[in-house]
Specification:
- Helix 6 crosses helix 7.
- This protein is 30% helix and 22% strand.
- It has 19 helices and 32 strands.
- It is an alpha/beta fold and 667 residues long.
- The chain has a seven-stranded mixed beta sheet, sandwiched between helices. The chain has a five-stranded parallel beta sheet with strand order 7-6-8-11-12, with helices on both faces. Strands 23-24-26-27 form a four-stranded antiparallel beta sheet.
- The structure holds ligand 6R9.
Length: 667
């Protein structure tokens, strides 16, 4: 059974080393790697990587660091992400290579998929050009415009992203599990002119009516003038607002088969997309990524981490709504000309072996998923795995949260038959691409169950103490990136001050990740979890404050405090303490209503595991909620040593709050 989420760093297998003897050519010791690594921490090193991309115009300056922390990579260079993913392949034999093998969720009576689509690079190229034509001609979308995308996992989602990148419109993709309010908030912040969506999709055997949610959001998003709606479900009728909403299929029928739109030569630092992510405040932050630097980190990591080859069948089983999908479903693999798998639905539908059957069906070679998914599937037992031949797999990685050693071992032994490199790639929405990892395509270092591995070439990661000194090996500290890197965030959309404050002020001039980590004797980094008030629920980032704001927005609620507690499957789940307004009585109906409310205002992923009604929440004298006390109560831990309390509450007060709360919620 999975142990509860790694958080303290105790009992981690720092000393355990697994050397794979089937990987001889690249199997090197840690020291040899460190030696090579030391020589890569320069902009010149990154220039060599960027040189492997096709530029319309070469850069004049590799790194403009004249206005830190607003770094600019490959200044003067001109590039286009859609060109890199498509046009480049039109000139080679890859033109008719399968780019995407897509499966819809529904199955027939024998458990076989009802819908499989295989799209070649040429198919994608034609669709992207037609859609770009529609965007330009029918909607007047131009370079610099902002467009929202709210779509399920269908090939038209990457097609939309590539069409927008082609004309230099900056897109913002919103995860299809987010609510109307969350969608509207993002559309408003991004000032999107247009929203591309679908009528619905399948998830866990049910139909989700996406257009209904999009309609509600657009009512509250005055900048959005039009919607393009993909008819993902041919049978499903939905109201279309005349003059505002258009069917994708009708528009595409109006564009010629051989439509061609010149890929816009964009400055390297042109914003490719904005992706919203949770922080410590109620409002999600719009992380802005450039084009040239971002494509460079993806090219590097596709080679080093995934060792991508033409023969590979690559599968990143994430959702494109998150950064993992942006980087390793859309831009990374397509730029490399890979064949990849894309799946619409849930990993356990109709049975817990859906993924294993897909790995067998398509001969998947490189697989990338989250610890939550691994733990969920592990729980169903090995019999589901044993039904399938997974011998084509050669590299496995995970992402999104720490992987506990037990889940790592299961992934390594049961899925990888004990012969595939298995890594846990550390990175963030902000970093654009993988930063700390095993890198079997570059050099294979010994594996250790649960570690993230070593910083990639060109990446200067370290673990610091509270006062900014390098932490001793084995000591918990804060993860930082000490040098700028291609793919780094440009800013927070419309909030540059917040950008500086959030990432570059905790340790002056260094990028602060907000994660706790330990560096072991070999220099391997083990990220333990967030050091700030950000939760990681099933690999998704959620701010405690975001959920609190949602709850306080309900008419019955006076105050709310949310903390994360360790969970066997999801890593962490939010728990909410709610103080009701005067004259409101606590009831089961109200509790249900509050759960519904959070689902509606943020999305199902934010729904608290439990909501406790309390008469007050413990606070410091300066009015800050003492989440530590709440957490101690829920995890049944004593308050322990609270002498280092940095807030102004007295020790006695904290203890009293702890006792009172414990008796009140009776846990
Ligand atoms: C790519 C992605 C970022 C946060 C990050 C950290 C956690 C991601 C991890 C990991 C331990 C790993 N995280 N990968 N923790 N080991 N391999 O997940 O981006 O959604 O922005 O989350 O996720 O806490 O700070 P994002």
């Amino acid at each position: 059974m999975a142990k509860k989420g790694v958080s303290s760093g105790e009992n981690l297998p720092f000393g355990e080393k697994i050397v794979l003897d089937n990987w001889n050519h690249k199997n090197i010791g840690v020291e040899a790697y460190q030696d090579m690594h030391r020589r890569t921490l320069t902009p010149e090193f990154w220039e060599e990587v960027a040189n492997e991309l096709d530029w319309f115009r070469k850069w004049e300056l590799a790194l403009d660091d004249s206005n830190p922390p607003f770094y600019r990579w490959f200044v003067g260079g001109e590039i286009n992400a859609s060109y890199l993913c498509l046009d480049r392949h039109m000139k080679s034999w890859r033109k008719n290579k399968v780019a995407i093998i897509w499966e819809g969720e529904p199955v027939d009576g024998n458990g076989n998929p009802r819908e499989v689509r295989k799209l070649t690079y040429y198919d994608l190229y034609k669709q992207v050009n037609r859609l770009a034509t529609v965007l330009k001609r029918n909607f007047g979308i131009r370079k610099g415009d902002k467009v929202g995308i709210y779509m399920p996992m269908v090939p038209e989602l990457p097609i939309a992203m590539l069409a927008l990148a082609r004309i230099g419109a900056t897109f913002t993709v919103v995860f299809s599990g987010f609510s109307a309010d969350s969608l509207a908030e993002r559309m408003n912040d991004a000032e999107a002119r247009l929203l591309i969506t679908a009528n619905g999709f399948y998830r866990r055997g049910k139909i989700v009516n996406l257009k209904e949610i999009a309609d509600e959001a657009v009512e509250k998003s005055p900048t959005v003038k039009n919607m393009i709606v993909l008819r993902r479900l041919p049978e499903m009728d939905i109201p279309m607002q005349e003059g505002r909403d258009y069917w994708w299929e009708d528009l595409m029928a109006g564009a010629p088969e051989n439509a061609y739109i010149e890929p816009e030569p964009l400055p390297s630092e042109f914003p490719l997309y904005i992706l919203y992510t949770s922080g410590t405040t109620g409002k999600p932050k719009g992380i802005v990524h450039d084009t040239g630097g971002y494509m460079t980190i993806l090219h590097a990591t596709m080679k080093w981490v995934f060792d991508i080859k033409d023969e590979d069948v690559f599968w990143c089983a994430a959702d494109i709504g998150w950064v993992t999908g942006h980087s390793y479903i859309v831009f990374g693999p397509l730029m490399e000309g890979a064949t990849e798998i894309m799946y619409e639905g849930a990993p356990t539908f109709p049975e817990p072996d859906r993924w294993w059957s897909m790995i067998e069906r398509y001969g998947t070679t490189v697989f990338y998923t989250s610890p939550t998914a691994i733990r969920t599937l592990m729980k169903f037992g090995d019999q589901w795995v044993k039904r399938h031949d997974l011998s084509t797999l050669r590299i496995l990685h995970s992402v999104g949260e720490p992987i506990n050693p037990e889940a790592w071992r299961w992934y390594f032994e049961t899925i990888g038959y004990g012969r595939c490199p298995v890594g846990s790639t550390w990175w963030m929405t902000e970093t654009g691409g993988i930063m700390i990892s095993h890198l079997p395509g570059y050099a294979l270092i010994p594996l250790k169950p649960g570690t993230n591995g070593l910083p990639l070439p060109g990446i200067n990661a370290d673990v610091l103490t509270e006062d900014g000194k390098p932490a001793a090996a084995g000591d918990k500290g804060y993860l930082v990136l000490k040098n700028p890197w291609p793919g780094m965030p440009m800013t927070i959309h419309r909030d540059p001050d917040k950008f500086v404050e959030t990432y570059f002020s905790r340790f002056k001039g260094l990028y602060y990740a907000g994660d706790y980590a330990i560096k072991d004797d070999d220099g391997y980094i083990w990220v333990l979890g967030r050091a700030d008030e950000v939760l990681n629920v099933a690999g998704h980032r959620l701010g405690t404050y975001e959920i609190e704001s949602s709850l306080v927005g309900h008419k019955a609620v006076a105050e709310a405090a949310v903390v994360g507690v360790p969970d066997e499957i999801k890593g962490e789940v939010p728990m909410a303490f709610v103080v009701l307004r005067e004259n409101v009585d606590a009831s089961e109906d109200l509790r249900k209503d509050l759960h519904q409310w959070v689902r509606k205002t943020i999305g199902p992923i934010a729904d608290p595991g439990k909501i406790f009604f309390v008469s007050s929440v413990p606070k410091t004298r300066s009015g800050k909620i003492m989440r530590r006390v709440l957490k101690a109560v829920l995890t049944q831990q004593s308050l322990g040593d609270i002498t280092t309390l940095e807030d102004q509450a007295s020790v006695e007060e904290v203890k009293e709050a702890y006792r009172r709360l414990k008796s009140e919620i009776g846990e």
